[in-house]
Each structure stands twice: as structure tokens, then as C-alpha cells.
Amino acid sequence: MTKSRFVVQLHDATRLHYDLRIQVGGVLRSWAVPKGPSMDSSVRRLAVPVEDHELSAGEFEGVHEGSVRGSGAVIIWDEGGAEILRDEPDHMSAILHGRKLEGGFALTRTGARRWVLVKVRDEFSRPGSDITAERPESVRSGRTWEELVR
Ligand code: MN
To answer: Is the pTM of this model over 0.85?
Structure first.
């Protein structure tokens, strides 16, 4: 088990999506998750792997100027500690200690550029819940991405 950190940024680009980033060594392994994470362990969410990002990328909240599509707004939707349990080419699992996301999560590769993100069933999983709808705001500023743009 490796102690680490994670961040989930909500990003209004071509499409609104969530960027899940988990620190591995000196970089942030990253996936774009169109619908965002769920605390319901029966929900599978598409996670598209993207390039590793620098640690500083995980600190950004604001509006990217000159965004071609979308407003370019980014909020830090959740963040916290992460305990990495498995880190393999086609699989990663971690215990997250966020303000919204808590407990085990698993990422598994299912195709060339296609992974699936699921909440591991544990004492923190909440069947039927929709955490992205319940808690749309930044954990840093309390603002939604729409409020940031205005
Ligand atoms: Mn993004």
C-alpha cells in the first residue's frame, strides 16, 4: 500500500467532464470520466485514460482563458488522501479519503482507450445515490463551475 493523494476536477471543455487524477510517484495518473464518479457500487462509469499530469495541475481551480470549446472552467470537485492498493497496467485500486468520495474505488481497463471506474462495495458505498448531483460544488471554494464563470 502506498500513501498518495487524489483530486477530481470538474472541467467544462468540449463536454463537461470530470478529471480523476491519482498521484503515482511524481505525477498524476489521469482519466477523463464523462459522467463522474458514483458512490453506488452497481454503477460503472467510463473512464478514458489521458496523459499523466504534473502535480501542479491538480491544484488548478479557475477559468482557462482562450478555451476553444466550453467555458474552460475548472473546479476542484473533490480531493484528499489515497491509499493505492494495486497499480497494474490494466488495473488500479485505491482507498480514497475525500470530502465526497470515500472508501474503495477500482479502475479496470476494458479496451484500447477505455477503462471502467466503479465504487468498491464497502461501508461507504451508497446504493441509489448520485453524488455528482447531490454535491456539484468545489470543495475548495464552495462554488459551482457555473458560478465561477459568471
Ligand atoms: Mn479535462
So the answer is: yes
Q: How far is the CA of 108 from the centre of ligand 1 (A)?
A: 20
Which structural domain, as residue segments, surrounds residue 33? 2-149
The residue behind cell 473533490 is 78
Give, in order, the Cα–Cα distances in Å from 12 to each of 2, 70, 91: 31, 5, 27
- Identify which of 81, 124, 75, 131 has the alpha carbon closest to the alpha carbon of residue 103: 124
Give tens-digit pLDDT for 77-96.
999 999 999 999 999 999 99
pLDDT digit string, tens, across residues 97-128: 999 999 999 999 999 999 999 999 999 999 99
Kindly give the distance from the C-alpha atom of residue 88 to the centroid of ligand 1, in angstroms, as a whole number.
Answer: 23
Contact 27, 4 (CB under 8 A): no
Counted domains in the chain:
1
| Calpha distance 96→105 (Å, rounded) | 7
The whole-number average pLDDT for the span 53-73 is 91
Query: How many angstroms separate the CA atoms of 5 and 96, rounded?
Result: 8
Ligand 1 centre to CA of 87 (Å) is 22
